[in-house]
Amino acid sequence: MGGAPAAQRDVGGRGQRSAGSWPAVPRRRQVGNVLFWALCLIALALVITPTVWLAGGVLYRAIPNFHWNVLFTRTQPSLSGGLVQPILGTFAITIGAMVIGGVISVLTGLYLSEFASGRHRGVLRGGYEVLAGIPSIVLGFVGYIALVVDLHLGFGLLPAVLVISVLTIPYITKSTETSLSHVPTGYREGAEALGIPQSWAMRKIVLKSALPGMITGFLVAAAIAVGETAPLIYTAYFSDQNPSMHLTHQAVPYLTYVVYYFSALVNPGTQANILSYDAALVLLVLVLLLIILGRIIAARSRRHAE
What we know:
Blueprint: H1 3-19, H2 27-62, E1 75-76, E2 80-81, H3 84-114, H4 119-132, H5 136-150, H6 157-181, H7 185-193, H8 198-226, H9 230-235, H10 255-264, H11 271-305
Antiparallel strand pairs: 1-2
Helix pairs in contact: 2-11, 3-6, 3-8, 3-10, 4-6, 5-6, 6-8, 7-8, 8-11, 10-11
């Protein structure tokens, strides 16, 4: 009998504690929380404001004078016409860089994730991380000295593709290595337990599971390649001719040169200046499409994982 009231008091006490209010948050913690979120909003504004200002300026100047036929009209030597050759040249350079840089990056990421260990992994990983920090104009100048001058390749598609490939390798390699490391070890162990050859398991199971993340890395690298200017000035130069199968000794047109040269060296309001903003608008749309495509792939991969 003596235990019943104690149990009732214990139950009642627990009920009162659960129904009561939580202890008040200390004022110092509240001030710290508000300060933290204020700093986060300020940092976000510092990042977003220049981007919105730049994109808004391009839209404001390009849309009033934009005509769809600019996408199907040739660029004239008089700095007028359309953007057919620069658009084709941009696609040629980007696709070539994705093929060459993509193959090297996937093999490197695969080696780092599945086979490398110890010192070899550290050296390779440190190498591509250092490569990611080298300014693109430095890579362009090195490409100019090594490819255009020393190897006598001249301005052309091949030197441009090689330099842009080097520029994109760190991003694709990092995404490949990270995606492969996130594939559960049980997939590999299960394939080994079933007697499946390692090469077949790697192609059909491991790489297939890591493919969404790898594709996202490719899209990020493609967006970077589309927007580069300095390396291409040193290796591709510029031409008003369509890109061809001549990989060397033939300059290649591309959109970023139109934005840089036509806007900086001509008077505002001229046809060349208007064409430069049209090229900027096309680049903005291309990069935006690549970002949206990457988001869609990432969302689908997360949903598949769940």
